[in-house]
Structure formats: C-alpha cells, structure tokens
Amino acid sequence: MKIVNYAGFRESAKARLPHFLFEYIDGGSYDEHTLRRNVSDFKKVTLRQKVLRDVSNPNTSTTLFGRDMALPIALAPIGIAGFYRRRGETQAVRAAEAAGIPIVLSTMSCCPVEEVRKASQRSFWMQLYMIRDRGFMTDFLKRMETAGIDTLFLTVDLAINGIRYRDRIGGLAGSQSLLKRPGRLFDILFHPAWAWDVGINGRPLIIGNVAPAMPNGAGLVQFQAWVARNFDPSVTYKDIAWLRQHWKGKLVLKGITDPGDAAMAVQEGMDGIVVSNHGGRQLDGSLSSIAALPAVRDAVQGKMTILLDGGIRSGLDVLRAMALGADGVLLGRAWAYALAARGEAGVKSMLDIIKEELEVAMALTGQNDVRKLDSDLALTQP
Ligand SMILES: Cc1cc2nc3c(=O)[nH]c(=O)nc-3n(C[C@H](O)[C@H](O)[C@H](O)COP(=O)(O)O)c2cc1C
C-alpha cells in the first residue's frame, strides 16, 4: 500500500500492531474530547492565500535551542517506542537525523540513552520526568551529560497519570503480566510480523533508562508499579531550582497551556516551553494546544522559545502553528505510527511528506522563510 499521509501511516500501524499497543498510542483520556479538539481546532486556522511573490526557493530551516535544523520540527518524546518496532528509538533517531532534525528522547524509552546515542551521529534532546529519588535524578543527569545532551524537556503536565479508558479496557494498564491477560496471546499471534520483529528480536523489552533503578526487572508491569511509587506529584518551581543546580544545559518545560504558567516560566528563566496537553492524554476537556497558543504567545512576548505539539497531522498544520506564534513544533503520534508501520524508512518518509507539505503551504501563502512569516498570515484562529 502506498502511504501518502498521516492517515495512511495510522491505518498501516493499526494493522501491524497488537491491538493493546495500537490503543495505547491512539487513545486519550476519558472521552477524548481534547484529543479530538487538538486535531479539529487546527482546521479553524484559516490561512491567507497570497500570490505573485517569488516563492521558488522556500527556506524551511531554523535554529532552536542553539541547534541548526532543516525543519522547524522535532520528534516528540514517545514512551516505549521499542515496543512498536525492533529497537524503535534507534530507528527513529536515525530517520530524524537523516531529515536534519532532533528527537526528544523519552525517559520512558525502551532503548537507554546510551544505545540511542550510539545509533546517531549527533546528540539529541532528552525528555525528563521528576522522580522522587533525587539520587536517581543526579545519576540520570550525569548520564545525559556524558551522552552529550544539551537540552532537557521537563514534562510538567503529568503530575499524576491521566485516566485512559482504552488502556483499562483492553490495553496496557493493570498489574497482571502482559502475556497472562485475557486474549493477549491471540492478539500477538494474529500479528506475526510484529511478534517476530519486536516480541522475539526486539528484546530486551524493558524501560532502558530506568532499568538501573529496578534491579528486579524493568518490564512494563514492574515499570508501571515503579512509576506509581516514584513519580513526584509534589513538584514545584522549588524542585526546578534544584534541577537548575544540577543541570547546566538548556531547560524547557513541556505541557504549558495557561498564559499565567507561561509568564511564570519566563520569570523563572526557562529557555523555552512546549504548548502541549500531552496529546489529549491527561486533562480531558482542556483547551486544544492550538487554541491555547495565541494567549501563551502574548504572555511570553518573545522572551523565550515556544514550541507546540498536539494534533499536527501535516505540513500545513506546521505552518498554521507557526503563523499563530510557535517557533517550532513536535510531532507525536505521526512518528509513532510511521515507525510502527514501516520502521526507520517510515519515519523518514513521513518527515519527507511533512517537509513537502510545509513547502507547498509556504509557497501558496507567499512565504519564503519559515522564520519570518507575515504577521497577518492567519485570518482566523480557534
Ligand atoms: C504513545 C504516546 C506516548 C507518549 N509518551 C510520552 C512521554 O514519555 N513523555 C512525554 O513527555 N510525552 C509523551 N507523550 C506525549 C507526546 O510527547 C506529545 O505531547 C503528543 O503526542 C503530541 O500530540 P500528537 O500525538 O497529537 O502529535 C506520549 C504520547 C503518545 C501518543
């Protein structure tokens, strides 16, 4: 099947993945209103069509957090990507690198940061959750430094886990061993390509970054129990001050949608924020990312870098986000599905498609440089 867009990668991933994994990626919290809004609100951003400008050479490159990038895009942190394809994070980082962009590697990746770093020519960005055990945190930060990471994304919209019905019904949630859950064996047997690629050849299927803190096994079930014990819901800027003392690189807060929180991030000297609601997986009923962006942009007043994620399905959406004030975007499910569908080649092909779509959108709106978009480009906003 020829895949030409996001929908094609999603369909192909659905066919290849065991049901419980597809549901984990595809789902959001509660009735998934925010998840749907993240996508539908993008369609409410009407762009101005501008003609008769020389658009023969559009520039899509930019610099974010000191890194030159071919596109204003990075791969968002996505947990357990090694469950979607064999050593998935290493495949994704190679594809991102080939497209000239970084990945933000999830703390919850299967491949530890050292393995992903070995697979790549250059360093990348890293996502972090605040863990209660500060000893683990200091060791982890040292590992990041050794791997040459210079920019950390601290995820702040997951003080505790959102409630996701799809995971509870047929998916990942629960304390029973994954293989022992009803219907699981059949689910896997009906997806033999996945079983061979990941189930047999993709081992160890553990959460590599936190494995050192879990001597009795870092499989999914043990990991979920570890998260429940160790994620720190008491985090405030006091803890971020602690982080600042132990981390000399750049620090970005991921999961801001409120203008007051954004102004606070500026005041506290953050290097940037990601306008994000965790892909609709946390607070259902909250604003979509794209609807939240204009007020956040006004609060920030150009004093730090603003990225956005949530609902970006095409290069046209990338331009829409940037027209409303984002300096760049992260792609979440888009790369998770591309990876599950076609591995490294899939992620590269998805990025090629997004690049072409962005160039076309720029040309048809008369824009030559993604860093210098016309300020009146968006006619309407959600
Ligand atoms: C399967 C899945 C796993 C995710 N894992 C993480 C994670 O480990 N850390 C994190 O900060 N965000 C995580 N996110 C949120 C993404 O980084 C991102 O905010 C979201 O996917 C953007 O929305 P989109 O999928 O519509 O592009 C995850 C999202 C999905 C779909």
Q: Report how far the terminal alpha carbons are from each other.
A: 35 Å
How do the strands line up in the largest sheet?
A: 3-10-9-8-7-6-5-4
| Attached small molecules | flavin mononucleotide
Mean pLDDT: 95
**Number of distinct beta strands:** 10
* Low-pLDDT runs: none
Can you identify the CATH superfamily? Answer: Aldolase class I
Query: Could you say how many structural domains there are in total?
Result: 1
Approximate strand percentage: 5-15%
What does this structure look like?
The protein has 382 residues and is α/β, with parallel strands linked by helices. It is built from 15 helices and ten strands. The chain has helices at residues 6-16, 19-26, 33-40, 88-98, 113-119, 134-146, 165-170, 184-189, 192-200, 220-230, 237-246, 259-267, 289-300, 315-323, 333-364, and strands at 62-64, 67-69, 73-75, 104-105, 125-128, 151-155, 250-256, 272-275, 305-308, 328-331. Bound molecules: flavin mononucleotide (FMN).
Write the layout of secondary structure elements.
Elements lengths: L5 H11 L2 H8 L6 H8 L21 E3 L2 E3 L3 E3 L12 H11 L5 E2 L7 H7 L5 E4 L5 H13 L4 E5 L9 H6 L13 H6 L2 H9 L19 H11 L6 H10 L3 E7 L2 H9 L4 E4 L13 H12 L4 E4 L6 H9 L4 E4 L1 H32 L18
Parallel strand pairs: 3-10, 4-5, 5-6, 6-7, 7-8, 8-9, 9-10
Antiparallel strand pairs: 1-2
Helix pairs in contact: 1-15, 4-5, 4-15, 12-13, 14-15
The structure holds flavin mononucleotide.
The site of flavin mononucleotide has 24 residues, from helix 2 and helix 15.
